[in-house]
Amino acid sequence: MMNIGLVVPFNGRPQRTMADIKSVAIHAEAAGIVSIWFPEHVVFFPTYTSKYPYTEDGDPGFGKRQGVYDPLFAATVAAAATERVRVGTAVLILPQRNPVVLAQEVVAVDHASNGRFDFGIGIGWSSEEYAALGVPWAARGKRTDEYLKVMKALWTDELVTFHGEFIDFADVIAEPKPIQSPLPIWVGGGSASMRRAARHGTGWYGWNLHGEEIAAAMRELDQVCEAEGRDPSTLGRKIGLPFNGSTDDFKRYLDASATAGVTEVVVAVGINAPQLHERIDALAVIDR
Fold it and tell me: What is the pTM of this model?
């Protein structure tokens, strides 16, 4: 049976509040949804020079007034309201953050969820957001790879020393350690993210793939794993897409994903909480 997850951009507006995160998380767990994911953008802009990679025209279509809660806080709220469903970030823009501070924050969420946290990361696509945060846009991929190494060392080693291009420290004690060992890392994005997932991750998280693109991406992921010296069967595979409410279309999507070797389909729903509960119910009864 195909696992179904949920990704929702809660933003504090009416029926998209922290209280709604709790109610949706409880409802999703009862309906058999296996995971709830929270996206990240620290700030948004009226227009972008940067091209959004998941639409043909490069327009993200966010609208004039947009925002989301910090995904680590949102995941903690969802975890506190539930017992079984996994919570995660989809995706946290890793190179925009200090990895030493972030490593400690991730451990806190892992403990708050009693080991139900999935750390989904990406490098982002908005140079405008990087500029607003005072973070260099250049070398963000190299920065991400190094940050992942730093965080893994902080999560596992008793006394940590790291001398890198971007991070440098010696004899650091970082406690507590995560409950999960290893803590799951999901790398989201395109081909470059596949290589990063094969080197550092628990799995790869693709977005908005359709038709032959699903099977093609899974074949590419196998090839990347082999090139990186990793057994492809050890890398998890999730893909996400918007859900328009058509259960027939979604059933065909689940079947195509399962045939291609996807382990979980994560459904993006950008509507208010009452309608979201209805969509969750519709997902729950799909034959998978």
Answer: 0.96
